[in-house]
Amino acid sequence: MWTALTAQASGDTRERNLVQNPSFEEVGDERIPPGCSSWAPWEDIAPEFAADDSVARTGRRSLRIAGAGRTGCYGYWAIHLKALPPGKFYRVSVYARTEGVPHIDRNVAVKLSWLGPGEPKGLFHGRRGWQHVGRRGTEGPWHRFERVVWTPDGADTLRIELSLRWAPEGTVWFDDLEVVEVPAPSPRPVRLWVAGFRCPDRTPMGAAKFWAEKIDEAARAGADLIVCPEYAATNYDDPAELLKCSSPVPGPTTDLIAAKARQHRAFVVYNLLENDNSVLYNTSVLIDRGGQIVGKYRKVHLAIYECWAGITPGHELPVFDTELGKIGMLICWDNTFPESIRTLAQQGAEIIALSTAANFYERGIQWRAFDSAVVIAESNTGGTGSCIVNIDGTFLDAVTERGSFASAEVDLSAKTRLPDRPQFDDFRSRVSNERRIEAYAPLTDAIPPGDTAPR
Ligand SMILES: [Ca+2]
Fold it and tell me: Which of 41, 110, 160, 333 shows the smallest number of beta carbons within 10 Å?
């Protein structure tokens, strides 16, 4: 008690590990570390559990699970932390090393379950949410798993599961489990603004001047990120006209938009027909508060008329790490392919700025957001269809009449819980971690050079 009081009085903020025996050095009866228990669904698929004196990250011992040659092997070491107060945040971390494990992110899982007092501790019922702890890096042969979690409503017990699954020839060792209380993450509010106006001027500078005025309007609404719609130069029948509609990047049009971004201290996503030495791209540019171009992306999936007109596709779906958060951009037809948003989400995108010229995403847009747990800010050239969709697929705001805008604030630090569905706590992490890329080979199987076989 004296130590605790002294630490408090001196403002010592050293983190205290809530895990007893975190390095698994002590062992009790049957050489099981106190506080740990092993579990498998039934004997035929049970892996082998042991405290291992031959492998350790620190001290001289670790927790081992081996697949024991059993197809379908599945089991975990469980550690419970009880009497945790509500509304607190914790950083959970553990180290693991493997041998003979085909895919560490599939076959080794560090999972958390939250249990309430006095509830049945069944496999499914009684859990008040669960979360994955993702792999964050390596230190020598050891992989570090880490994440920050919080005590959900009604829960007071954290159950940590250190598991091996579906790796009959694999072995995993765990060591140095740590759970420490950390401050609640700071809010990360971002006010999004999407245009619902039709631009009457299709010349590059005419369009830029029109959108510069709209950026003034967005700034009055307090926007942090302003999304302009797809430029959609109208005359795709006449290549000479199309060239006149194009602009270099950077160039006079982006300079004008950048000046507005700087004036209003707002981020802007601006779409235009980019001319790069007479090669044309449908390009969106991300400009920061200081008026600097953070990056650009060129539409990957071209509309068929764009192909006919001679526009060239881009080949990348980049994500830009900004002071607002991680931002990905999409242009119209790119969003028709769910792979586009998933590719951005897997790179950590939190906000997708979608510039469109067609209003046929109205229903699909909600599933696009839900599928990958991202915020989508869509601005449509035609006006209606512009909207802001939250990570759970709900509309935060939408333009229903042409000539207005939609605006909403999102907190990117918020727990990504789906309302009324606590078992989906942190849906984004689950989607990311539970993907099975091994089964997606037909999606990612690039056409080899010279391959002309029909597909
Ligand atoms: Ca140890």
Answer: 41
Q: DSSP letter string over 351-416?
A: EEEEEES----TTHHHHHHHHHT-EEEEEETTSTT-EEE-TTS-EEEE--SSSEEEEEEEETTS--
Gap from CA of 333 to ligand 1 centroid (Å): 53
Distance from residue 96's CA to the centre of ligand 1 (Å): 11
Residues around ion ligand 1, judged by CB within 5 A, are 23, 56, 58-59, 61, 175
pLDDT (tens digit per residue) in 207-262: 999 999 999 999 999 999 999 999 987 677 888 889 999 999 999 999 999 999 99
Average pLDDT score, the chain: 89
Distance 454 CA to ligand 1 centre (A): 56
Query: Which pLDDT band, with edges at 50, 70 and 90, does 1 fall under?
Result: very low
For residue 93, the CA-to-ligand 1 centroid distance in Å is 14
State mean pLDDT over 300-317.
95
55 alpha carbon to ligand 1 midpoint, in Å?
A: 8
CATH topology of domain 189-412: Nitrilase/N-carbamoyl-D-aminoacid amidohydrolase (3.60.110)
The fourth-level CATH superfamily of domain 16-182 is Galactose-binding domain-like (2.60.120.260)
pLDDT greater than 60 at residue 264: yes
CA 159 – CA 121 distance, rounded (Å): 10
Q: Are 262 and 290 in contact (CB under 8 A)?
A: yes
Compute the distance from residue 182 Cα to the ligand 1 centre, in Å.
24
CATH 2.60.120.260 placement within the chain: 16-182
For ligand 1, the distance from its centroid to the CA atom of residue 178, given in whole angstroms, is: 12
Residues 6+ apart with CB under 8 A from 366: 389, 393, 394, 395
pLDDT of residue 117: 80
Res 278 pLDDT > 90: yes
